């Protein structure tokens, strides 16, 4: 498939005091380990149909960020790009600034800068696609790498499921669910025969570092390695190359191997994983095949899901927990700073009251959660489908292998979080509830328990709009 394309990017390192996102505690950034950025890739077929990727090194694309970007784009009269033909997504890095207004350490000035640089990059890419588009041929392939992914929810000897139960835990029986090691990707080969663009989808949490340093985590190492590889072949040209590292349905997946005591929370681990994925994808470039067909199609809708169902028995239990620990103040920022994932697995008093308080607060929440779903079809059998927040991997597999059976399908998750007041959350399968694990608690999962099924059925309907 022949395609015209243009790209742009902007560094989004923080320049003001702001906490890093992804944990319960406030972590004010104090140094930069490596640059984070927003990337824009605009594609146009021979009939003028357009599709675009706006990919952030951020925790996720919140509803507020989504609204602010399109408001600013309208203000600047940005042509060609719209909600209907653009996928906004994030790499889910936990070492990027916090942008949820109600979260500890958020800074509105960073949010404003992020919106400005994203829309500026979009403007640059649109200008280039209009005036000086690059041209190439689209190719696709699928590889696999299971070295770095594990289902992080485990059945324990007591019959309950625990998230991240700890390394070498003798009470682990087996993982609760699946993994998805496949890496579908497409590339653009320019008229000189060299690759200039790679867009891939990898199912894994991007959370290997921690600390207070800004970083793009393993996704950054992966992107830089692949861009260096493409750029190396272009010694005589100054044409820019770009990798867009989409993250798939990773809500119940991470990189922790519980069968070893190897340290897996450090900068070196991000490098190991990122470069490992780069090796796998580089090797698979030999398998690239030209995409048949000539046209680009896009589909878009917005779906609504109810807020999490509240069980009266569970609500009573939550209120009892709150009453049991009157001396604990879960609204104290300094106290929250001490909350860790280990506390959740152990069920410490602070963790119990913190989650119980969030449960009670959710019982008074009545906002509907609204998500964008956007998809592209390139030629005859290449699909890119967006999913909101952090869906469990079985949901992504259902979209990839059932809805789009017979096609190469990339998932772009973390593309929306629901209502303005919703800060994001996991989207489990219906059968995950009632077993344990923190992803299914109302604090971590503010959406209806039917949301996962609704995403799959919504994509089943949307898929019929593709020719």
Average of pLDDT: 93
Low-confidence stretches: none
What share of residues are in beta strands?
25-35%
Largest sheet composition: 9 strands, mixed
CA-CA gap between termini: 16 Å
Q: Tell me, what's the shape? A: globular
Number of strands: 22
From the alpha-carbon coordinates, what is the Rg to the nearest angstrom?
22 Å
The total domain count is: 2
- Helical amount: 25-40%
Number of helices: 10
Structural class: alpha+beta
Supply database-style keywords.
alpha+beta; 467 residues; 22 strands; four-stranded mixed beta sheet; 2 domains; single chain
Concise description?
28% of the residues lie in helices and 25% in strands. It has helices at 63-75, 108-131, 217-232, 267-284, 312-324, 333-336, 341-346, 349-362, 393-403, 451-463; strands at residues 2-11, 31-32, 37-44, 50-56, 86-90, 134-144, 150-151, 153-156, 161-163, 172-175, 182-190, 195-202, 213-214, 242-247, 253-254, 289-290, 296-305, 369-378, 382-386, 390-391, 408-412, 426-427.
